[in-house]
Amino acid sequence: MLIQEIIRRKRDGKALETDEIAHFVDALTKGHASDAHAAAFSMAIVFRGLSRDECAALTRAMAQSGRTLQWHDIDGPIVDKHSTGGIGDSVSLILAPAVAACGGYVPMIAGRGLGHTGGTIDKLEAIPGYNTAPNADAFRRCVREVGCAIIGQTDDLAPADKRLYAVRDVTATVESIPLITASILSKKLAAGPRALVLDVKTGSGAFMANETGARELAQSLVDTACAAGLPTIAHLTDMNEPLAKAAGNAVEVEAAIDHLTGAHRDPRLHEVVLALGAEMLIAGGLAAHPEEARRKISEALDSGAAAERFAAMVHALGGAHDILERHDAHLPRAPHVRDVDPSMPGHVREVDARALGLAVVALGGGRRAPGAPIDAAVGLTDLAGIGEEVGPGRPLCRVHARSEADAEIASAAIQRAYAIGDKPAARRPPVIDRILAAPQ
Ligand code: URA
Q: Following DSSP, what letter does each residue of 283-347 receive, concatenated?
């Protein structure tokens, strides 16, 4: 089978056969397909799209291009969650231990910050000693004994996606719903969950800002995952403002710990944790209906059982044993902390969440170039939400910066990101919709 013939057929709008897709992915994995082939294949898909079956075939082939994890030694439901990424979204840090405390097993392969969005792995690396790249035995042990482990992408998991993504990134072919779908799901499938819950964000801070696009992505993800044999549902959630009051790395770990211990719970973050957690329990057969599932997640949080799982995960993966009690001592702190006042007093009408994410990147909390180091200590806390009154005594947020000059630049960007008005603006609910697989 000639690689260029497969590309030509897609270029001409033909449906590819499963074995053609498998052949292309195999060639990509073994290095028989060049970057030029990968770019042309991706661009053909950008223009011609993929049917549900083709997308499922691409997903499966990429998932099987490397190691696939099996969990035969675990006697319990293996469930996972994926988010398309946002600002102030520390859901995974709370959700995985909460589900584990309810009897689920969560082997979560998470990502780093992408563009203006934060990444779970960067957040966890703010915890001194936490190893986001443990060997396979340590990962499995943590999942088996603690019930959850959050680690980074490994080279042997879906390597075809890694290769294709690197080419897409530099050939204007990232923005294709079938390619995004196959990319996200191949990594999830390779980690071996029995059910998946997706959090697809929409709004100014989302990867897919536009709601129509986000719905289309959610539907494509759910349909393709189900077609590939992984029962999946999605929630469409609001990212027109940061999900909680902190954005950054150490500051979000701190917010997650406060949530787990009950010291402070942001209601919007809490609602997303409950909604996604309930879906995971139902998908895993750990609850019969949404009310029971939400109650179990709440109890896991309120009893401290979820917090204990978080602490056990951190310790099992190399962090301190007393992260809950002594997070102040363990987490890095930025030397310059200052409040950002609004340009005028009033109520928050709109927030450009993307601009806030970029302000965190500019502070050093995200990357300007692939692989660059990040500053775990910097970020934003006490972020005002839509509808909140700001002015004397209530700043827009607090900036944590490496230098006064950085704090000054961030403050100006943050002021520009907030639109202030006379009257309180209506807030969207954090969970907008629930997306199920379309009938075949
Ligand atoms: N995240 C991924 O993993 N893949 C994409 O294509 C886009 C976002």
A: HTTS-SSHHHHHHHHHHHHHTSHHHHHHHHHHHHTTS-TTTTT-HHHHS---SEEEEE--SSSEE
